[in-house]
Every structure is written in structure tokens, then in C-alpha cells.
Design brief:
The complex is a heterodimer of chains A (374) and B (411).
Chain A lengths: L1 H13 L13 E6 L5 H10 L16 E6 L3 E6 L16 H5 L3 E8 L5 H17 L4 E7 L6 H21 L7 E5 L6 H11 L5 H15 L1 E8 L4 E5 L6 H22 L5 H8 L7 H4 L5 E7 L6 E5 L4 E7 L7 H26 L17
Parallel strand pairs in A: 1-3, 1-4, 4-5, 5-6
Antiparallel strand pairs in A: 2-3, 7-8, 7-11, 9-10, 10-11
Helix pairs in contact in A: 4-5, 7-11
Chain B lengths: L1 E5 L28 E9 L5 H10 L15 E8 L3 E8 L3 H8 L3 H5 L2 E9 L5 H18 L4 E7 L9 H26 L28 E6 L6 H11 L5 H15 L3 E6 L5 E6 L11 H20 L8 E8 L3 E7 L4 E7 L3 H14 L21 H5 L7 H6 L5
Parallel strand pairs in B: 2-4, 2-5, 5-6, 6-7
Antiparallel strand pairs in B: 1-2, 1-4, 3-4, 8-9, 8-12, 10-11, 11-12
Helix pairs in contact in B: 4-5, 6-8
Classes of the chains: A alpha/beta (374), B alpha/beta (411).
Bound molecules: guanosine-5'-diphosphate (2 copies) and magnesium ion (2 copies).
Chain lengths: 374, 411
């Protein structure tokens, strides 16, 4: 864990503009691992909001499922059928460049509740292949389904898997392969947090974003601030204070609450009469001018009156969520002004980033790697 | 099972005067006799009775229920619901031996004075025939001793059924239960043909199989598909609780006054521990909301938010978790939720606009005193007739809503 955090920090600083020759399209997340390790569940829960309990009914994946995630950046998510080995397949030759040619991450899912030796062996051979030909691919190992396992047991498994991989790699003369480990489950926040880490490494100029949030925390005396991708609850940046799962969880759940309220009360058109009445006497103003802020904004005071939480929509995809310090709810006017400034900065940041992402030619995907033979 | 003791605004020990009460709504607050009603919670062992009880009333998480031990015999617990409603929740162990016992030696004791029977069927159960046979026996006993009881049948653990087929599976099972209910009633009727036709049972709001005949003993039956893993549980329990809430029509009248006064589109009143919707009011515009399931959905959202807060602050899960919430979605809508009376939270959804919002918050705070009676057997301080919006603004009574709001600076 510590090791992972250290890696994370380092990456956060050095990430600017990965200069790979392969950056011609959207970053790609490749989900691989044994059958029934949980790959489709993960992509359904994170990217399609499937309730975790409903994953019991997922059909097994017969062909590569490609999703794209349209957000502040566009990502592709590819879910692979577990039974095939793309490097050594008797029936079909895969176009490796088509799969690994993009900058991105390979997410290798291991079922921690099952015997994982074969999974680790396959992972090792995959790492060796990639390390040779596609070193720019980050390898992210999700030690998955850790719900139901004790904390000690989780760490034991993580240690065991790490050692098995390191030993094999160094036997093969490979040092410093970019392998990271995450303990995950679809039944809690860990899967979203893990994806956050994975995706942050793929964001150009992440350091700048982090600096903006760190600044905001200092001027407004916030305890912690997150920039969320609202649809997935992945956080794409946070301030420089130490990582803290608890504050991520509460902020992420707050986004959930807002999403639900927005859907129930904000997603259907009001009638003409309604608007007419509200804009007539004594208001005599369009509704747009009766509001203080055109974007969604929200605040919640916890009952112990200590740390209020605030949320501010940045654009269609992003929201800023912060945990404030005790008693700061009274200073909302000043805080709102500071938040306005940062929101403006964030908007500009993504406006600069966007055109680059959408450069001509960037849209067309590489050739399809083809279907898997039944 | 549970006993409901309701004191309907009556002084608990005689002596207090209830005189002041003169408004038109006074009719609703007529002192009803202290009523003692049982609510039986029954169903086979493992069907999920203790789980639901713990989730609704003790703020357990669905996944925590896996750790619940089996209920042996009868598990008694007192649940305070609002100020003047105490549920003596009796969760009956569903092991067969106990079921037998309820039906034989304890028959009169268990089935007399029942207000509500909640019967839980596990949709996963292998032995449907036997489950239904037990149900028939229970219904027979109920009709025999408490013919006016309402029956809520929960077809439970629906999450274990393929999402595609849930509706069919439920419809099928519901039809079966209705038929069996009718059969059970027929048996009792045959046994006691001499019984004079009593005042017929209250008509249901939900579909029941047959129109109520004069001497029909069919209980008032409502069926729900439920799961502890989603909001369906809140829908069922809000219905169960709804008719037991004392002074319901008074609450409804006053919520409507408040809603009109502050120009709201919807107001929901939640019980503070369970977050079940006690009452609600919706404007004509609000009725256009296509989300018919929003009430149980709100319960579910706020309840899970409470869990999040409890985890974060390290306070007990039954403790109060938040006091104030605001959400303004640009020029689309605004809403706030806040601690209301001692036993309730209120959620207000309204049109956008800064001034409108601020004035609504002030008015809701002022309206707390109208709802004091929610917190216990106390008669409201002022008659509802005087519950004119203006009074709540503190700007003197008699002002109409628009006048009062016009007084607020527009942005
Ligand atoms: N306990 C637990 N089960 C999981 C988790 N993720 C997935 N599963 C279950 O694992 C099974 C296989 O999942 P699936 O996504 O089809 O695996 P795939 O073959 O790798 O795509 C399903 O029954 C899921 O419900 C998890 O985090 N915890
Ligand atoms: N899948 C599923 N399991 C449930 C549900 N409700 C309860 N359970 C489980 O069923 C088991 C027995 O529940 P319990 O409440 O003790 O049953 P009781 O004997 O009727 O009180 C527990 O493991 C619960 O977690 C449900 O809606 N869905
Ligand atoms: Mg799959
Ligand atoms: Mg039990």
C-alpha cells in the first residue's frame, strides 16, 4: 500500500505529456484476467452504474466488449473474454498493435477468493510480452473480490502475489516493470478509488490540476478537495494533502446523492404556465436571472456541525467536492468567490486539453482486433 | 409482531385540557381512544423478517444482515415511531414448531387485536406448497380473531430473481397468494356460518381480487415485491406505517398550507430514524414528475447517506447525521432538507430563485411550531385554521403567500 502511494506521488509529479509515439487516440483501459474474475462486473458497475448485486446475472463475455467513456477526456474501455490467451491463441492471431498501440493501462483482474496461481502465471507472461514491445502500458493489478476477506488476509494475498510476480520478472531479467497493485471490490468504494488512480496517470498535466486544488484548499481552508468525474465517481485530481479513503468515500457518496436528486427533480421539463407564473409579478424576471449561480451548487452540514461538505458543478462532466473546516459554513460568500475563480481555472484547463484530444484524426480508432472464435 | 399504542393527541394521564383546539382541522384531532393494536411480522424462518426490521428501524446496512442470528420464538422490541407511536415489534421466529404453537395453544393470544399482519414469503423458498399451507392457516386464525386486520404480504428477496422475469414471477406469486387468501377465508366462513355480517372491512386502495361482499371476511390485502438490496423495502414499509400514523389528516392539511405558502413543488416529511415517508404534499406542477417511485427512492438515498456520515464522523448509526442540506440546480430547481421537528426531517423541492429559496427556508423554520404535535401527545399550540402562511413568516398573520414573498428582496 505504502509502496503504491509512493509510486503514485512520484507519477503525479512526472506525468506531464507522455511523449509516446503512440498517442493517436483516446487512452485505453484493457480489462484482462481469468474467466469470472470480475472484469465485466467491474466495467458494468463503474461505467454503467449497475448495482453490484445485479452482476450475479451478467452473461459471460464471448467477445471483446468495447466501451467508450465520454467525459473530460475520452477513454476506451475494453473488456476481454477470460478464456482466451491473446498471446498464444491457436485459433486466431491478434493484432497486437491494435490492442496495445494506444497509451493506456492494462488492468489485470485476479479473483482473490479463488485459486490465483494460474492467473498470476498468465499475468507474468503478459507482463513480459508487454514489457518488451509496449513499455508505455501501465500494468495495474486488481486483486479483486476482497470483500469478505479479513484485512490481514488481504495483505497476505497482496504480498504473496507481489512476490510471485517480482521473482518471475527478475528471473527473466526484467526490473522496474510498471506494475501497481490495488485491492478492490465492486461492493464498496475501492473499485472506484482504484480506477481513479489508474486514470490519473493518464491525464496530461495532472500536476497543474493538483496545484489548483491545493491552492483552493489553502485559501478557503478546506480540509480536502476532489475533482470528480460525475458519471463514474472517479476522482481525477485532489489536493496535495495525504490520501484519505474516508474523505474520498463521503465526497463520492455526496456526488451520488446529488446525482439522484438531479435525476428525480431536475431531469424533466416544467410546464410553460409554471415558468410564466414564476417569472411574472412580483418577480418580473426570467428564472435565469433569479438564481445566483447558473451551475449546480450544494452544501450539507453534518449534525456534529463540524465539517460541512460542498459541491460545485464545473461543467457537464466534472464537479468539485470539498470538505470544509469546522464552522466555515458561515463564510460561504467568500468561499463561493474563491470557488468561482478555481472553477474558471479548471474550465480553462480542460478547454486547453480538449482540442488536443480531439485533434483531427484522433477520432478514428485503430483496426478492430477481431472477434474471438467460439 | 408488534403492538401499536397510539395516543392520538390525547393526554396520557387524564386531567389536561384539550380545549383550545377549535380550528376546522380539530375534527381530525378528535381524541381517539388509546388504541392498542398488534402488528404481527410472520413468515418462515430465514425469509428476511429480522433483516427488514433491522434495516428500517435500526439502520443496519443490507450486508450486515447476513450476521443476524436466527430468531427463536418471539423477539420483542420497542420501536419509537414519531413521538406518540410506539411499535412493540414482535418478530416471530418462523421455525415450524413455533408456528404450530402460534396456531394452537397461543392462537387466541397471538391473533386477537391484530391491526396489521405482515407476512413475508421468501421467493427462493423450495417448498412453496408448504409455505402457502402455513400462510392459509395463519390467515384463517387472523380472520377468526381479528377480522378487521390489514394484511401486507411481502414477496421478498426479489433481488435473487433475474431482473427480466421479476415482474412475471411476482405477478404469478401474487395471484397465488390472493387465491389462497380467499380459500382461507372460505374455510373460516364455512366453519362459522352463523356469524352475523359485521360492518364490512375497509375498502382497499390497492387491487384486491373481489369486491367486498356484505359478509365477506377477506382481509384488506396488499402485496409488495421487496428486497433489502433496493428501495422496494421502503415502499412496502411506508405503506404499512402510513395508516398507523396518528393525526395523519392534520399533518396533510398543514403540509398543504405550508407548501402553498412557500410556493413549493413537493414536500416530504420523513420520520427521523427510519426515514420512511410519513406524509407528503405535491403541487400540480410537481404531479407531473415522471418518477413515480421517488418517495421510496428518497428514503433510500437519505438513509444510505446517513450511513456514509455515520462512518465518516464515527457517530452511532442511529444518531442524527445531518442538520441541513441545500441543493440549487441552476435555473432548474432548488431543494433543501433539514431537521424539522424532534422526530422528523423535511425535504422541500421548489422552483429556482435565490430570494424564493431564502424565504422558503425561513418559513419552514417558522412552521416547525405548527407541527409540534408530531413529537408527542401534545395538542398543537395554534389551530390549523390560523396556519396561514403569513403567520409563519413572522410578519403578522393574514398575509397571503405572494404578498409575503414579494416582501423579500428579489436576488
Ligand atoms: N464477492 C464479489 N463478487 C464479485 C465481485 N466482482 C464480481 N463478482 C462476481 O464474480 C462473478 C463473475 O463476474 P464477471 O464480471 O462475469 O467475470 P468476468 O468473466 O471476469 O467478466 C459474478 O457472479 C460477479 O457477481 C466482487 O468485487 N466481489
Ligand atoms: N438476497 C437477499 N437476502 C436477504 C434478503 N432479506 C434477508 N436476506 C438474508 O436472509 C437471511 C435470513 O434473514 P433473517 O432476517 O434472519 O430471516 P428471519 O428468520 O425471517 O428473521 C440473512 O442472511 C439475510 O441477509 C433479501 O431481500 N435478499
Ligand atoms: Mg466477462
Ligand atoms: Mg429472525
Amino acid at each position: 500500500m505504502e509502496n503504491r502511494q509512493r509510486l503514485q506521488k512520484k507519477d503525479g509529479v512526472k506525468v506531464p505529456d507522455p511523449p509516446t509515439p503512440h498517442t493517436k487516440g483516446k487512452p485505453r483501459l484493457l480489462l484482462m484476467g481469468q474467466r469470472r474474475s470480475g472484469k465485466s462486473s467491474i466495467s458494468s458497475v463503474v461505467f454503467h452504474k449497475l448495482p453490484p448485486s445485479e452482476t450475479l446475472f451478467l452473461e459471460s463475455t464471448a467477445r471483446i466488449q468495447k466501451d467508450s467513456l465520454n467525459s473530460f477526456m475520452e477513454f476506451q474501455v475494453w473488456d476481454f473474454p477470460g478464456q482466451i490467451d491473446i498471446f498464444d491463441n491457436p485459433n486466431f492471431t491478434f493484432d497486437m498493435d491494435a490492442i496495445f498501440g494506444e497509451i493506456g493501462a492494462l488492468i489485470w483482474v485476479i479473483d482473490a477468493q479463488d485459486d490465483y496461481l494460474e492467473a498470476v502465471a498468465r499475468l507474468n507472461s503478459t507482463i513480459l510480452h508487454l514489457h518488451r514491445s509496449y513499455p508505455h502500458i501501465n500494468i495495474e493489478v486488481f486483486i479483486h473480490k476482497v470483500d469478505g476477506l479479513s484485512d490481514d488476509y488481504r495483505l497476505d494475498i497482496q504480498r504473496d502475489i507481489t512476490i510471485r510476480i517480482q521473482d518471475e520478472l527478475s528471473d527473466q531479467g526484467v526490473e522496474n516493470a510498471p506494475v501497481n497493485f490495488h485491492l478492490t471490490s465492486i461492493y464498496n468504494h475501492s473499485i472506484f478509488e482504484a480506477f481513479s488512480k489508474v486514470i490519473q496517470k493518464l491525464i496530461p498535466r495532472l500536476g497543474q490540476l493538483e496545484a489548483m486544488l491545493t491552492n483552493l484548499c489553502r485559501t478557503c481552508r478546506f480540509e480536502k478537495a476532489y475533482l470528480f468525474d460525475v458519471n463514474t465517481k472517479i476522482y481525477i485530481a485532489t489536493d496535495s494533502t495525504p490520501e484519505d479513503m474516508a474523505s474520498y468515500e463521503i465526497c463520492s457518496d455526496y456526488v451520488d446523492v446529488i446525482i439522484d436528486f438531479t435525476e428525480v427533480y431536475g431531469s424533466w421539463p416544467r410546464s410553460q404556465q409554471w415558468r410564466k407564473r414564476l417569472e411574472g409579478e412580483p418577480w418580473s424576471q426570467p428564472l435565469e436571472e433569479q438564481v445566483a449561480c447558473e451551475w449546480a451548487e450544494s452544501g450539507m452540514v453534518l449534525a456534529d456541525a463540524r465539517r460541512p461538505i460542498m459541491l460545485r458543478e464545473v461543467d457537464r462532466f466534472l464537479a468539485l467536492v470539498a470538505i470544509m473546516k469546522e464552522g466555515s459554513y458561515d463564510k460561504m460568500p467568500q468561499i463561493n468567490m474563491n470557488v468561482d475563480v478555481v472553477v474558471k481555472g479548471l474550465t480553462e484547463f480542460f478547454e486547453i486539453t480538449k482540442p488536443k484530444e480531439l485533434a483531427p484524426g484522433a477520432q478514428q480508432g485503430p483496426a478492430s482486433p477481431g472477434l474471438v472464435q467460439g | 409482531m408488534a403492538d401499536f399504542e397510539t395516543t392520538m393527541g390525547a393526554p396520557s394521564a387524564g386531567g389536561q385540557v384539550v380545549g383550545d383546539w377549535t380550528g376546522p382541522a380539530a375534527a381530525h384531532a378528535q381524541l381517539k381512544k388509546v388504541k392498542k393494536q398488534k402488528v404481527l411480522l410472520m413468515g418462515k424462518s430465514g425469509s428476511g423478517k429480522s433483516s427488514m426490521r433491522s434495516i428500517i428501524f435500526s439502520n443496519y446496512l443490507a450486508r450486515d444482515t447476513r450476521r443476524l442470528g436466527a430468531t427463536i420464538d418471539i423477539d420483542l422490541s420497542h420501536v419509537k415511531f414519531l413521538g406518540n407511536l410506539t411499535l412493540n415489534l414482535w418478530d416471530c421466529g418462523g421455525q415450524e414448531a413455533f408456528m404450530e404453537n402460534y396456531l394452537s395453544q397461543q392462537r387466541a393470544h397471538v391473533f386477537s387485536n391484530v391491526g396489521v399482519l405482515i407476512y413475508v414469503f421468501d421467493i427462493e423458498s423450495r417448498d412453496v406448497e408448504r409455505d402457502l399451507a402455513t400462510y392459509v392457516n395463519i390467515i384463517s386464525a387472523l380472520v377468526q380473531y381479528s377480522r378487521e386486520a390489514k394484511v401486507f404480504v411481502l414477496i421478498h428477496k426479489m433481488d435473487l430473481v433475474q431482473p427480466m422475469t421479476r415482474e412475471d414471477v411476482f405477478d404469478h406469486r401474487a395471484a397465488l397468494v390472493r387465491r389462497k387468501t380467499a380459500e382461507a377465508v372460505a374455510i373460516v366462513q364455512k366453519q362459522k356460518p352463523e356469524q352475523p355480517p359485521q360492518a364490512s372491512l375497509t375498502t382497499t386502495t390497492t387491487p384486491t381480487p373481489t369486491p367486498v361482499a356484505n359478509n365477506d371476511l377477506s382481509p384488506n390485502l396488499q402485496l409488495f415485491a421487496t428486497s433489502i438490496w433496493d428501495q422496494s423495502l421502503y415502499k412496502a414499509w411506508a405503506s404499512i406505517i402510513h395508516d398507523l400514523v396518528p393525526n395523519l389528516s392534520l399533518i396533510e392539511t398543514q403540509l398543504a398550507s405550508l407548501g402553498l405558502a412557500i410556493d413549493a413543488d413537493e414536500i416530504l416529511l420523513f420520520e427521523r430514524t427510519s426515514f420512511l415517508v410519513v406524509s407528503r404534499w405535491t403541487s400540480a406542477e410537481g404531479e407531473r414528475n415522471p418518477y413515480g417511485d421517488r418517495f421510496e427512492r428518497m428514503s433510500n438515498i437519505l438513509k444510505s447517506w446517513k450511513h456514509t456520515c455515520s462512518k465518516y464522523t464515527g457517530t452511532p448509526r442511529n444518531a442524527e447525521q445531518f442538520s441541513d442540506f441545500e441543493y440549487k440546480m441552476g435555473a432548474t430547481f432548488s431543494m433543501f432538507a433539514t431537521k424539522f421537528t424532534t422526530n422528523t426531517y423535511i425535504l422541500v423541492c421548489m422552483p429556482p430563485g435565490e430570494a424564493r429559496f431564502n424565504s422558503a427556508k425561513l418559513n419552514v423554520a417558522a412552521a416547525r411550531s405548527w407541527f409540534k404535535f408530531l413529537d408527542g401527545p401534545v395538542v398543537p399550540a395554534q389551530p390549523a385554521a390560523a396556519a396561514v402562511p403569513g403567520a409563519a413568516a413572522g410578519a403578522g398573520s393574514g398575509l397571503g403567500a405572494s404578498q409575503m414573498l414579494a416582501g423579500m428582496p428579489a436576488s
